[in-house]
Amino acid sequence: MEIQPRIRTSIDELEKITLTVNCLGLFSSNELIDDVPTDSLSFLLLPCYLGVLHQNITTEPKVKLAELERATIYYQSFLERARNLKIIDYNFHWDVEAEEEKLDGERRSKLTAEQARSLKLARFRKKKELTELESSIRHQIQTSDSEDSILRHLYVTQLKYWCEKSLEELQSIEEETPLLKMMAERGSTPMEPRPPRIASKPFIITRDEQQKKVFGIGYPAIPTMTVDQWYEKRFGHGQQASAPSSSAPRKDDSEEDENDDESRQRKIRMDEYKDTHRRGWGNTHNKG
């Protein structure tokens, strides 16, 4: 089953439970957290659950803005009730009835990046401490009898955790809202159709007057024909170039044999001469 239909179904069910809680009058505006019965404490988280569900609905930007507005209302309603019950003692920037809350809103709008980062880190540490405390209480409930005081401590810890969580989600919604507004404005403004592009004819530089105008007459790097065209012009279509023939006449085998005999006889006579005439015998002028 897809998540979005399940979110819609959960919203319907939680709205019915909220209507029942309001009809029963489980909570009063003039009571504190100690006056609320333990069995009724868990119903205080209904606005948080509804806020999370509306915040996670996936839809187009304009509808998403409306869903985030509903989530904001639920988170703020929960935080205001938690403050009335004295679970927290925060001042909220959206409450403009008290002067100190107006000033708090002005201070918040002037927070620097470093201050916002410090606030986020402090909130993260607080959530971590509450999560560890909740785990410890759950372990205590499992290992001992579920006394009303222990169970009440667990519910109050969960309420404090969701106070920090709700403030964090409200900050996230504030950061996401401008982007969604910009996307919604772009989606509502029809885009002007682009004029059709005129197809241009291909321009090919040829080997004629146009080429001369571009490169000048006698430009040495411009080829006048391709290699295939030159080959066809030189040797003709379908013909192969003949290998160059030697212009020197080839000697006959008989002439080569005679030359070999004469050369051999000449070497024999030279060897006989060297045997009878030692080197240096003819030099009689330089004898000592």
CATH architecture of the domain at 3-183: Alpha Horseshoe
Return the CATH topology of the domain at 3-183: Serine Threonine Protein Phosphatase 5, Tetratricopeptide repeat
Query: What is the H/E string?
Result: HHHHHHHHHH
Indicate the proportion of strand residues.
Answer: under 5%
Count every helix, treating DSSP H or I runs of 4 or more residues as helices: 10
Please name the fourth-level CATH homologous superfamily of the domain at 3-183. TAP42-like family
Which structural class do the helices and strands define? mainly alpha
* CATH class category label of the domain at 3-183: Mainly Alpha
> How would you characterize the largest beta sheet?
none
Beginning-to-end CA distance, first to last residue: 128 Å
- The average pLDDT value, as a whole number, equals 76
InterPro entries: TAP42/TAP46-like_sf (IPR038511), TAP46-like (IPR007304)
Protein name: Immunoglobulin-binding protein 1
GO cellular component, one term: cytosol
Organism: Caenorhabditis auriculariae
